[in-house]
């Protein structure tokens, strides 16, 4: 069997990780039970844990671990875990916390075991017998947001109807080496030019100046995490979009900008000035949730200045729309936000030696992560219990205090917030600010 090496970007995510700054994605799915369990069935959380334990062994992508290889120097590859044990990945957690987000914070802070396939599922059983939650953790080297969705969906109940076909991964072509040589050389030349262009765009952005102190985290809070979530009505978001223009994503980013402005004011921070913090907006290069399943990360990104200094909410939305349109016109392979593409131009040994340095330099590249994970319109369930809410959770880069992820499921927008617990002890106030900002924009367009 041919060795399957980690792609350059997957390898970068693997090498960047540290004990205080784990590089896993998360998704907190909240389930509602259809009714009381039958005699001898156990509770819904127990059934869910048993099903996840039984099903994960049948998903090839969840049985693979990462191992260093001798050649190429610094590279790593996927290999089957000969001692795969579902009990080391699926956990039933009993908690007296009514809000599953509170239980998710410490679990998100805990790194995955790098000797095992890099994923976990924590079934959170709280005091409410009619609901439970599952916190899925997937290392970023294993999958991006859409790839993680495909892996998690394989553990849920079978969805009625035909499944979408898995598209081939771009770049896997036949033919001899000689027949492909001209194309390979042309791609290398084009890639060098692209790398220089991205580097120049990063230099033009300059150093992070005037960033609110609340968005930065020092070493004192390393390793601590708090998680919060907020569910908003998608109809209200669409009302804003229709009344003020832009896309749904423009509105969702604008809500983050306005909420940050409110939150900072509530903390007594100085009035925001300048161009605003730089938000990294990841962009998937997949065509759908089953495109290249198991093929690792296929990401680029946009860099957007959040207009926190703009006091008018509709003008904030307009500035976000203009900035995103400019990014889209340039495309995801250009600009400072396309920094992820630079990983393709680094030798594996460079990733191994420079990974910790790159992790520490994240603060120089962007100030806050704002990512969107699109979910299909299917109804997911586990043991008959339906998914009621889905909160995506993003990794927190070194030196940054906050990461925002958002998804839309069944007519509801779910914001998942991950913060450094020491730097942001008032994360609940930020979720309240998001709600208030939505209400304000709805009034403005009504």
From TrEMBL:
<comment type="pathway">
    <text>Glycerolipid metabolism; triacylglycerol biosynthesis.</text>
</comment>
<comment type="similarity">
    <text>Belongs to the long-chain O-acyltransferase family.</text>
</comment>
<keyword id="KW-0444">Lipid biosynthesis</keyword>
<feature type="region of interest" description="Disordered">
    <location>
        <begin position="275"/>
        <end position="296"/>
    </location>
</feature>
<feature type="domain" description="O-acyltransferase WSD1-like N-terminal">
    <location>
        <begin position="6"/>
        <end position="251"/>
    </location>
</feature>
<dbReference type="Pfam" id="PF03007">
    <property type="entry name" value="WS_DGAT_cat"/>
</dbReference>
<keyword id="KW-0443">Lipid metabolism</keyword>
<dbReference type="InterPro" id="IPR045034">
    <property type="entry name" value="O-acyltransferase_WSD1-like"/>
</dbReference>
<keyword id="KW-0808">Transferase</keyword>
<protein>
    <recommendedName>
        <fullName>Diacylglycerol O-acyltransferase</fullName>
        <ecNumber>2.3.1.20</ecNumber>
    </recommendedName>
</protein>
<dbReference type="InterPro" id="IPR004255">
    <property type="entry name" value="O-acyltransferase_WSD1_N"/>
</dbReference>
<feature type="domain" description="O-acyltransferase WSD1 C-terminal">
    <location>
        <begin position="296"/>
        <end position="441"/>
    </location>
</feature>
<dbReference type="Pfam" id="PF06974">
    <property type="entry name" value="WS_DGAT_C"/>
</dbReference>
<dbReference type="InterPro" id="IPR009721">
    <property type="entry name" value="O-acyltransferase_WSD1_C"/>
</dbReference>
<keyword id="KW-0012">Acyltransferase</keyword>
<dbReference type="InterPro" id="IPR014292">
    <property type="entry name" value="Acyl_transf_WS/DGAT"/>
</dbReference>
<keyword id="KW-0319">Glycerol metabolism</keyword>
<comment type="pathway">
    <text>Lipid metabolism.</text>
</comment>
